[in-house]
Write a structure and sequence with these properties.
Helix content is about 80%, strand content about 0%. By secondary structure, the protein is mostly helical.
């Protein structure tokens, strides 16, 4: 493999993850200003925060259509343009309904990128490097979260009732950079060969990816294409795909009922609930972003060494412990420092396990014929759960308190531990076609 070239492609595509993370977390610093600006009720406020996630659900649900029909690269160009329009629109909005539309559009970009970017990276990565290459997407997600927290902290420090506009609008800069850099990224060679398009370009790309074994890769992909020609269009929910479908849905559900997006979206509010002041709460979110970044980077180093399943076992045990201790702190009114400490450790375990593994694992377990559809299913499930949690969190925080919320998240992680132990297979070191043989019921 020409490491530098393939890494560049993967890194550029993973910038979609940076925008994904920035867009997801930037609202945490702006949400209380937005509530005051438009005098929103709790229900309106929950809807305002979650509207981007609702867009993400639709973006994820429809993400496989342009990815399969137009190509991975063309879809990513569309995603970059969506991010750019959303950032500018939300920063300039003076009408609440227009703001909602722009945030919804941004959510469409997040959903589509969560489908297309991991699929693209998995299709251009050799088996021995695929875990860490796809994990670049999650690395950029958490990097985007960290930069948004830092940006919110510095912009918020200058005060002013309209600081939230700059918080949201500054995303236009990385969106424009993403749009420009995609010019040097080729189309996925697997997509080209499976569609019978530009085979010379596809072969040239595969030669760069795998100089020693590209001919075998071409034969395997062509064989997969010949098997699909004349056959009925593959249905994702066919009986033979029940194993990857079940794994993707359960993995995505557990990812969200860990409470991660509630913490990312409402971190300042959670810290204020535990007794911290506003400035300390914003600074504490920066700490969460730094820990998330460091441990995602650590996970990338280990994901191809010790495997996806082992990371999940280690991480889940840590999540159970930290969520349980956070719940106890709220029940006993221990104070903000204890909650911050437990959630910093929680983020470390999450980043080392679920955060790094989810997009890698879901992008691997589906066969070539339904990979984009499978990624869509996983992303759709992930984001609809995230939207539900983001929408209900303000009401739940006001009516049942932090103790019950974090106790629920802890209980869900006990169930996840059973899922990983009993059902989750290991996929490290296998080609996508080898994984297909073990996942499909013939």
């Amino acid at each position: 493999m020409n490491n530098n070239i393939v890494f560049f492609w993967a890194f550029v595509v993973a910038l979609g993850g940076f925008l994904f993370g920035f867009d997801t977390a930037v609202i945490s610093g702006a949400e209380q200003h937005i509530q005051q600006y438009w005098h929103l009720t709790e229900v309106q406020h929950g809807f305002t925060v979650s509207i981007a996630l609702i867009g993400t659900v639709f973006g994820a649900l429809g993400g496989s259509t342009p990815s399969d029909k137009l190509g991975r690269r063309a879809t990513l160009l569309l995603v970059a343009l969506i991010y750019l329009v959303s950032a500018i629109g939300t920063a300039m909005a003076t009408n609440w309904y227009f703001f909602l539309v722009c945030r919804f559009i941004g959510g469409l970009g997040v959903g589509a990128s969560s489908v297309t970017a991991p699929v693209y990276i998995s299709e251009v990565s050799p088996a021995s490097y695929r875990g860490r290459m796809v994990a670049l997407f999650q690395f950029n997600v958490v990097f985007g979260i960290l930069i948004s927290y830092l940006s919110n902290y510095f912009i918020g420090g200058y005060g002013g009732e309209n600081s939230w506009r700059l918080m949201l609008g500054i995303q236009a800069i990385p969106a424009a950079l993403f749009l420009v850099l995609l010019r040097w990224v080729p189309e996925s060679p697997r997509w080209l060969l499976l569609r019978g398009k530009k085979e010379a370009a596809a072969i040239k790309t595969l030669q760069i990816i795998n100089p020693a074994g590209y001919e075998e890769d071409i034969n395997t992909i062509r064989q997969s294409r010949h098997q699909s020609i004349g056959a009925p269009k593959e249905r994702l929910f066919a009986r033979k795909y029940r194993t990857p479908v079940l794994l993707a849905v359960l993995f995505a559900v557990f990812n969200q009922v860990s409470g991660i997006n509630a913490i990312i979206y409402y971190a300042p509010r959670i810290f204020e609930m535990s007794g911290l002041g506003t400035a300390s709460s914003l600074l504490s979110t920066v700490g969460l972003g730094i820990v998330n970044f460091i441990f995602t980077l650590t996970a990338i180093r280990f994901i191809d060494r010790i495997g996806r399943r082992q990371l999940m076992l280690i991480g889940t045990i840590g999540l159970i412990a930290t969520l349980g201790l956070t719940a106890i702190s709220f029940y006993t009114h221990t104070g903000g420092i204890a909650v911050i400490s437990y959630l910093l450790i929680y983020i470390a375990f999450f980043a080392f396990s679920q955060g790094a593994v989810i997009w890698v694992f879901i992008s691997e377990i589906f066969p070539n014929a339904v990979r984009a559809k499978g990624q869509t299913l996983g992303s759709f499930t992930h984001w609809i759960m995230a939207a539900i949690i983001a929408f209900t969190f303000p009401w739940l925080a006001s009516h049942i308190g932090g103790g019950h919320i974090f106790a629920f998240f802890c209980g869900m992680m006990v169930l996840q531990l059973l899922f990983v132990w009993r059902l989750m297979p290991e996929t490290k070191g296998q080609t996508l076609e080898e994984i297909e043989m073990t996942m499909v019921v013939h």
